[in-house]
Amino acid sequence: MATFFGEVLSVYSRAVEEDDDDLDDENEDERIHREIEEKREVHIVWCPEVAQSLEDSGSNKLQCSDLIIAVGTNAAGFLSAYVLNTESWDAVGHVSLWNERSRGSSRQSIAPLPGEPACLFYRHRDNPAVFGCLQKRGLSVMVLSDSPVAEYKTPDYLYGSAVPFLRSLKSSASKGQALCPALEQPNILTGLPAAVLSHCQVHQIPAVLYQCYTDVISPDSITMETFKPALLCLSKLVKLEPCLSADVLRKFAIITEAQSNLYT
Amino acid sequence: MAARYDRAITVFSPDGHLFQVEYAQEAVKKGSTAVGIRGKDIVVLGVEKKSVAKLQEERTVRKICTLDDHVCMAFAGLTADARIVINRARVECQSHRLTVEDPVTVEYITRHIATLKQRYTQSNGRRPFGISALIVGFDCDGTPRLYQTDPSGTYHAWKANAIGRSAKTVREFLEKNYTDEAIATDNESIKLAIKALLEVVQSGGKNIELAVIRRNQPLKLLESKEIETLVTEIEKEKEDEAEKKKQKKST
């Protein structure tokens, strides 16, 4: 493999290992890992009226007809700015978690702060069947996520003007056209969006995912606007802010341009 | 796929790409637009001004710099890399004056900058400079010149060119509008540069900075009032054009 000046390649020895005394140390490492694994927790907290309706429904499941999930700062910013901003949404619960990689807060009753790994659920006031989380039959799911364009693999050279752009993936139960080209091979999805889509595919829930590839690291208004084609699907379900003032977008986007003197 | 051949500068990919150099050209696209126009008796450099933070001194955020009395350049890309290149170029200009007792020609200093950039694409442990430069000036014999360099170390002479964020749009505009009438007078050349920038700059003349060199005169930065006047003139001309077209259509 081509290497650069200063790169250190770890070389694996093919010498046969004798039984050595390091076994204890390894066991200790394993033990510590196991202990930390057991400490992993996921907490779901609902607001009182949803908790009540959960109890009332008996099967501990919530009615939901449409589910919209946003993963990533730009996708979440898009939803916050264009959809949740119309003020007819209520925060009805949250999930917070703790594992050895992403440490959430240990408080369970207080809503998670931005920056902590967590998920906030919002429910539409007028149409409580439209929801921001969990599974049920008769459900359709839309996932928005963002990803750096450096991870987009293509045989052609990508010119700067094409970025940011959208690609889509659908579960086979999903009818209807996606509003942007499908994600080409060999690109793959990972993480929560992939888990959601796999789940929907296995349980034959119609789901569509929009992945935005962007070259900006922080939340950015231009990237958020790239999700606009998804608005067309959403507008059947919820009221949207059709034209957003720059001020609203700025609330959700961190303006780093003026402070960054890296490029002139 | 670029994955295995784009981490080292000194490695070609099987299909002949130097990926680090090509990625350096992407860094250039992150800088704001700069345009250069070669007129008959004037050379013009126009840049899109970056928005400056509230507490920042505006005059220290300059994209246009002199290299010598008769040569100046505008850059797009990494600020720090530009500073290094400009320093080396300025030293070379003075060294040339002392050694040869003549001011540099624009082509000489451009070739020096381009050679410097190329050296950094061929040694290990260093990355290429992430800037493109537009170098303008007059030679001793009075000919106006405009050159452009890029991170790979190539340089070419141009009649008009643009670098930076929306360079493609501006270049297309220039290809359509750079005519002999458009550069007939000094004022017309300046207006062509402003018109080219207005294609891509938001909020008009406030965000444009302009510099001109006339034959045997040092670099002159236009004041914002002058730029505003020219922008108003251009807008009026556009309205008159639109009116004429409307009248032609109705008759």
From TrEMBL, chain B:
- GO terms for biological process, alphabetical: ubiquitin-dependent protein catabolic process
Coiled-coil residues: 224-251
Stored PROSITE patterns: PROTEASOME_ALPHA_1, PROTEASOME_ALPHA_2
Q: Give the chief site where it resides.
A: cytoplasm
Q: Which CDD domains match?
A: proteasome_alpha_type_7
Q: Can you cite an annotated GO cellular component?
A: nucleus
Q: Which UniProt keywords apply?
A: Coiled coil, Cytoplasm, Nucleus, Proteasome
Classification via Gene3D superfamilies = Glutamine Phosphoribosylpyrophosphate, subunit 1, domain 1
Domain spans labelled Proteasome alpha-type subunits: 5-27
Lineage: superkingdom: Eukaryota
Q: Where in the cell is it found?
A: Cytoplasm; Nucleus
Concerning Pfam families, the annotation shows:
Proteasome, Proteasome_A_N
Query: Oxidoreductase as a keyword?
Result: no
Family, similarity comment: Belongs to the peptidase T1A family.
Binding partners and assembly: The 26S proteasome consists of a 20S proteasome core and two 19S regulatory subunits.
How is this protein named in the record? Proteasome subunit alpha type
The organism is Oncorhynchus mykiss
Q: What is the lineage of its organism?
A: Eukaryota, Metazoa, Chordata, Craniata, Vertebrata
Q: Which gene name does the record give?
A: LOC110530418
